[in-house]
Structures are given as C-alpha cells and as structure tokens.
Amino acid sequence: MPDNERPLMTKDDMDDGIRGLAEGIVAANEGEENIALAGIFTRGVPLARRIAAKIASLGGPKVLVGTIDITQYRDDLSTFRMVPKLEGSDIPFDIDGLNVVLCDEVIFTGRSVRAALDELLNFGRPKRVQLAVLVDRGGREFPVQPDFAALKVTLAPGERVAVRFEEVDGQDTCTVQTQASPR
Q1: Any domain includes 164
Q2: Number of structural domains, the chain?
Q3: Phi/psi of residue 28, each to 5°?
Q4: C-alpha span between 132 and 37 (Å, rounded)
C-alpha cells in the first residue's frame, strides 16, 4: 500500500458491509415483490450486483439490476482533463411504480446522486428512490443523505475514500488516501 494510503475496510469488512446493506434494503422494502437496484458507474455497478446476489442468498424478493451512467449529467465535466468514458445506462425493466435503490460506493458532496436521479427519471416514475452506499464520508454540498450506509467516516481536508472492487480493479480494498501537500 502506498505511503499516502491507510486501510479503511478489509475485504471481509466490505463483505460484511454489503450483507448489512442487503439486509437493510430488504427490511425497508418489506412486502415488495421486486426490488430494483441501479448501480452508478463505475463502482456502484459491482456494489449493486453484489447486493443483489446477497439479497438472493438471503432468500429475499426478486432483485432487478440496472446501471446508471451519469456522465451527461455531471456539473463538473469542464474540470476534467479527460472526459469520462460514456458507458450508457441500462435499465432493462420498467421502473414505473417500483422502489429503486441507487447504489454507489461512496457519497461525499451528493452531486453524483443528483446526477443519477436526473438520469433515472428518464426511465420512468419510480414509487420511491432510496440510496445505498458502502461509505458515507460526509461533506455534503447537496441535501442528499443515504438511506443505507455500511460505514460512515469523517475525514480531514485533503483526504478521500478509495474503494476498489475486484470486478473493476482486480482487488477488494477500501482505503483513505491523503493528497500530497504542495511544497
């Protein structure tokens, strides 16, 4: 691990957190026939798929899984050196009247969630939208709070949470990265 990183969650902690998210989602949606999960690209996608698998293994209701690409809805595109790759959203089911859970690995300012809501509503009118995150690091700029969070942390300025999933990054880790101080 680089000098500017410290562990926040181990692979086992991440697995336990995902189980907790799955249990919380099932409990909050008791009586629903279907639960729809929409993973926000990039790392919200494996999170949504893992939550769906955990709900299935717990004998929960049917889980529908889709993906949300927020690239076109970002309010910070002009600050990027390279524009992120456009993945395209894939919601292969009707969301009208469904409880939809947006999934993202980290919530910080709330801007990604705002963008995801804009994109999600292009697919229909859900009954309710909830938010599940692996890590809530505080620091909101928008009035958005997760309904489900595996871990809540407070970080110092200049620190950020880095979540890696094996499906995307080749390993499961969750660390805090400290930006180098300018000299």
Answers
A1: no
A2: 1
A3: -75, -20
A4: 9
The angle subtended at Cα 178 by Cα 1 and Cα 83, nearest 5°, is 95
In a domain, 6, yes or no: no
Q: What are the Cα distances from residue 77, in Å, to 82, 83, 87, 107, 115?
A: 9, 7, 15, 18, 12
pTM value is 0.93
Instruction: Decide if 183 is inside a domain.
Output: no
Half-sphere exposure of 180 (CA within 13 A, CB side): 4
Q: What is the CATH number of the domain that holds 76?
A: 3.40.50.2020
Pairwise CA distance, residues 93 & 24, whole Å? 23
Angle at Cα 26 formed by Cα 121 and Cα 112, nearest 5°?
35
Domain that holds residue 51: 11-155
Q: Is residue 78 part of a domain?
A: yes
> Binning pLDDT at 50, 70 and 90, where does residue 87 land?
confident
Spatial neighbors of 54 by CB under 8 A, at least 6 apart, are 18, 19, 21, 22
